[in-house]
Amino acid sequence: xIDLEKIKLSEYFKEISLRSGDILFREWEEDTYxxxxxxxxxxxEKSTSxxxxxxxxxxxxxxxxxxxxxxxxRSEKKQVQIKANRNTVLxxxxxxxxxxxxxxxxxxxxxxxxxxxxxxxxxxxLRANREVTANxxxxxxxxxxxxxxxHTVFWLLQTFKSILEADSILYFEKNMVMDDYYKLKYHSNMxxxxxxxxxxxxxxxxxxxQLEQExxxxxxxxxxxxxxxxxxxxxxxxxxxxRKDFHENEEKLLTNTATSFVGVIRQKEILENERNKSYIKxx
Length: 283
Hints:
Blueprint: H1 4-9, E1 14-18, E2 23-25, E3 33-39, E4 42-49, E5 54-61, E6 66-67, E7 81-84, E8 88-94, H2 99-105, H3 107-143, H4 150-163, E9 168-174, E10 181-187, E11 198-200, H5 208-213, E12 221-229, E13 232-241, H6 248-282
Helix pairs in contact: 2-3, 3-4, 3-6, 4-6
C-alpha cells in the first residue's frame, strides 16, 4: 500500500488544497501532473452538453486513489472533468520533471506507487472485459427468444438480473394512451400482483424518491434507465444493488441492456395489437 505520509514529506510532491466545488482540471486541459488523494473526495464528470454546462457523474475518488496516472507515459488532453465534492487535499508530482527524481531518491515508495498504478490498470481491464462478456450474454439471451409475451419478458428480466449481478430489477411499463402514467409490471423482489399499481411520473421522469414514498422497495444503489425507441418512451428499467455501486463501464452496460430490452417490448406490443385486431374482427 502507498505510504501517503512518506510521499507527503517528499520534496518532489506538492500539496494541493481544494474547497468543495473547486475544479482540479477540466475536459481538454493539459498538464503533466500525477495526483494522489490524501484526504477528501473528488467527483469524476463527463460533459453531456457544452451549451448548458451539463455533466454526468462517472465516479467518485477517495483517499489513496490515483488520478491521471497516464501522465507518466504520455501527454494528452483530459477526457473528463474532476472537481472536489468537499474540502480535499491532493499530493501532486510533475510526471515529466520530478517523478524520475522521486524514483531515484525514494525507490521503495516509487515501486509501491507503480504497483498501485498497475493494480488500477488491471482493475479497469477486468471491468472492460466484464462489460464485453455481459453484453454478449444479454445479446445471447435475447437471440434465444422464440415468442414475445409477458412470460418471456419476465424470464428475460430475471436473466438480466443474473448477468448484471444485481439484487433487484424493476420494469415500469408506460401507458401508451395516457401520458405520464406507468404500471409496475415486474419487481424481482415483490411477490404480489403488480398490475394494479399505477404511478404518475410528470413529464415522463421517474423519481426514486417518489417510489420510496409509495413503499416500493429499492436497493441502496439503484439506477434508472428510460426505455426509449427512437423518440418514444416505453417505460423504465431499474437495476439495484445492496452493497456496491455501478462503475462507469457498468453504466454503459445498463444503457445497452435497456436498448436491447425495449426492442423486445416493442415487438410484444406489435403482436398484442395484431391479436386485438384479429379478435375485434372475429366478433
